[in-house]
């Protein structure tokens, strides 16, 4: 199995409810290592740049507003098949469809305010990690 890195974001709905530790425990229990982490406040423009791929979607403006509404915790998770494993631990985008025991099933409030983001493929993981972190900030 390949060791991979993936970008994770603990979103404003979760940081506001003080859920960072509970969410991190889910990652660690699944064998993912948090090899970089910082709590930051995004501007709406920065959120828009990160989610540029969704620019044409009807929810884009709402998504950017939300991501800038309170601090987020950005992280690099490392482990065997980390990208797929993280998506498994997060659960489906819409919490109504998320399997029991996943982060979104337990904590997410709605499809928009869904507690976590995770990269969906190796190329996007690379891009998303470098959006937030320099190589020096990632200590495996
Ligand atoms: P995320 O994995 O961060 O990637 C894009 C985000 O857009 C997604 O999680 C959701 O939070 C958000 N999103 C997707 N669909 C909708 C929707 N219908 N309404 C609001 N936000 C959405």
UniProtKB/TrEMBL annotation:
Alphabetically ordered keywords of this record: ATP-binding, Cytoplasm, Kinase, Magnesium, Metal-binding, Nucleotide metabolism, Nucleotide-binding, Phosphoprotein, Transferase
Job of this protein: Major role in the synthesis of nucleoside triphosphates other than ATP. The ATP gamma phosphate is transferred to the NDP beta phosphate via a ping-pong mechanism, using a phosphorylated active-site intermediate.
Subunit comment: Homotetramer.
HAMAP family, sorted: NDP_kinase
Active site: 117 (pros-phosphohistidine intermediate)
Protein's gene: ndk
The organism of origin for this protein: Roseivivax halotolerans
Catalytic activity: a 2'-deoxyribonucleoside 5'-diphosphate + ATP = a 2'-deoxyribonucleoside 5'-triphosphate + ADP; a ribonucleoside 5'-diphosphate + ATP = a ribonucleoside 5'-triphosphate + ADP
Principal subcellular localisation of the protein: cytoplasm
Localisation per UniProt entry: Cytoplasm
GO-annotated cellular components: cytoplasm
Enzyme Commission number: 2.7.4.6
Record-level Gene Ontology MF annotations: ATP binding; metal ion binding; nucleoside diphosphate kinase activity
GO biological process, one term: CTP biosynthetic process
Lineage: Bacteria, Pseudomonadati, Pseudomonadota, Alphaproteobacteria, Rhodobacterales
Name by which UniProt lists this protein: Nucleoside diphosphate kinase
Chain residues that bind ATP: 11, 59, 87, 93, 104, 114
Cofactors demanded by this protein: Mg(2+)
Positions of the Nucleoside diphosphate kinase-like domain: 3-140
Protein family (similarity comment): Belongs to the NDK family.
Pfam families xref list: NDK
